[in-house]
Amino acid sequence: MSAVRRRLENARHRIGAGRRTPPGHPLRLVVEKATWLDDAQSAVMLSIDDLTNAWHDRGGGRRWEQGGDWGGGLRGDGSALRFLEERLLADFPQVRTTFFTVAGPISPYTRHQPFSFAAALDASGESRRFFRAIADDPRFELAYHGYNHGTPGVETAAFLQEFRGFESLDAAVEQTRRGIEIFTQAIGRAPRGGKYGGWDYNEFGDAAVDACGFQWWCRDWTPRDVTGVIPDAYYEPQLFGRGGVIALPTTVHGRFWTHGQVERLLACRQLIAVEEHIAPVRPDGLVQTPNIVDDIDELRALFAYLRSKDVWYATGSEVAAYVAARERTTVHDVAADGFAVSYVGGVPRPRLTLRVNCASPGTTDATAVRLTQPDGTVVDASRDGSHHGVQTRLFTIDVMDGRYRVASVPA
Hints:
This protein is α/β, with parallel strands linked by helices. It folds into 2 domains: 23-38 and 328-408, no CATH class; 41-309, Glycoside hydrolase/deacetylase (TIM Barrel, Alpha-Beta Barrel), CATH 3.20.20.370. Helix content is 25%, strand content 26%. The protein contains 9 helices and 23 strands. The strands form 6 sheets. Strands 2, 4, 6, 13, 14 and 15 form a 6-stranded parallel β-sheet that branches. Strands 16-17-23-19-20 form a 5-stranded antiparallel β-sheet. A 4-stranded antiparallel β-sheet has the order 1-18-22-21. A hairpin with a 2-residue loop joins strand 21 (383-387) and strand 22. Helix 5 (169-187) crosses helix 6. The longest helix has 19 residues, at 2-20.
């Protein structure tokens, strides 16, 4: 009799619950932050070091040799940018490139082997127009790579990378601000992010980057391991400094990438950040590696492989803004009619994709809804998704403090 009574009570409870909650109307929402914009599996960033106002010809000619343009060739025939556009970007227009740019005259590796030509970004009206055009192109971004890249030695092995050589925090900040001023004069705006030359820096580096107001920085070479020996968290973005600078990992060598490496990054939803250099020819006679000239076939193969993957192509600043939105927001006070967001990041009003499950408890079909942001702007779902077998709606919001209201869309 007790078992029968329990079954009758359970049946009455289900009937009562059905009367209280109309079919298809959720008791509350389930809101989750997508790892990447529009719930892509991974973000993809092509980073190219050492674009600057310089070129070199080992034969002493008055024009760069093949592979000798570091950016000073501007858009001339045989220039580095023309090579990249014609040999890669023409066939893969979806790719977004972040160039790490030396602001002042780039230093040679040795004192007795100078570049054929090296000048600051703002040395002439022609160079200013060239670099500003790159910065204004939605395919590209210019980021900071130092004032001069370093100090030459009597031999290449004695070259001292710029952020390794500072003897005090004040010296690091002063020279970095001088480089930022040149960059700003040439480009029309300050850089948002940057990278240490040669991945080398001392105890003053991070503090200087933080003090100079950068939003993001590449400071460690972290090619993706596929053996499982290194924890997955090693390849995630980090935060450092009082300003919460976002440290982006660099995970793929442009020449020696493998399918297994890329698949591991995709499976872990981690950043596919490809490392390259703008030119192979150096004034000391060595080869700059990796470089886009020698690696062009491997780069083409990589981006051809990624064509079938659900990835988001982005610049360093776009990736960092999304990381700030994802990691420095709190979604709280979730109810049937909406939710609130609190944000403590340094990037103003970044975008964030949310997976919103509007299904009634115990069902898998989501209700069609529209989202209204705290400032009154309306956001429609970008597309439907599926998470753990439950249908969801994807919304890409502008992150701001306040309450986001959710309402059903009439059929």
